[in-house]
Design brief:
- This protein is of the alpha+beta class and 141 residues long.
- The protein is built from 5 helices and 7 strands, in the order βαβαβαβαβββα.
- The chain has helices spanning 23-26, 38-51, 64-69, 92-101, 129-137, and strands at residues 6-7, 33-34, 57-59, 82-86, 106-109, 113-117, 123-126.
- It has a 5-stranded mixed beta sheet with strand order 3-4-6-5-7. A two-stranded antiparallel sheet has the order 1-2.
- The chain is globular, with a radius of gyration of 14 Å.
- 31% of the residues are buried.
């Protein structure tokens, strides 16, 4: 089930279910629209609990216009199912392992972030040569 597409202020939000996140931080930065699957939010909260530390979301939901402006894929998972989590303050490999255990299936390895989504089939990719070098030096094979 998805949360209502619309302004983050009007989103039905279960603060007891997702206590460490709010709709504003996950909404599109250009228009405030939010459309996030509850399953994705559940995975994000499980990851936060497993890490035992705050997660900074660099990119959550993106409206179609914002997604195009930032060069996102036309069918980007950020339109409902994805989060870019800042690596700063975390062991990147622990974050990745706990994200997988929390139910995420899509992993994009960036230099400063880890893209996570709940797509149906597992997928892994890098964001250029520098991210390949970074993540392989950390032990990702």
């Amino acid at each position: 089930m998805t949360l209502t597409i619309g302004p983050w202020r009007a989103a039905p939000w279960d603060a007891s279910r997702w206590p460490d996140f709010g709709p504003r931080e996950l909404a599109c930065p250009c228009c405030g629209e939010i459309c996030v699957f509850e399953r994705a939010l559940d995975c994000l909260q499980r990851l936060r609990d497993a890490m035992g530390a705050p997660l900074v979301i660099d990119s959550g939901h993106r409206c179609a216009l914002h997604n195009a402006r930032v060069g996102g894929a036309p069918l980007s998972q950020h339109k409902a199912l994805a989060f870019d989590v800042r690596l700063e303050g975390h062991d990147p490999m622990a974050l990745r392992e706990r994200a997988q255990a929390s139910g995420f299936a899509g992993f994009g390895y960036g230099n400063t972030f880890l893209h996570l989504d709940v797509r149906a089939r597992p997928a892994h990719w890098f964001y250029g040569k520098r991210s390949i070098e970074k993540w392989t030096s950390l032990g990702l094979s």
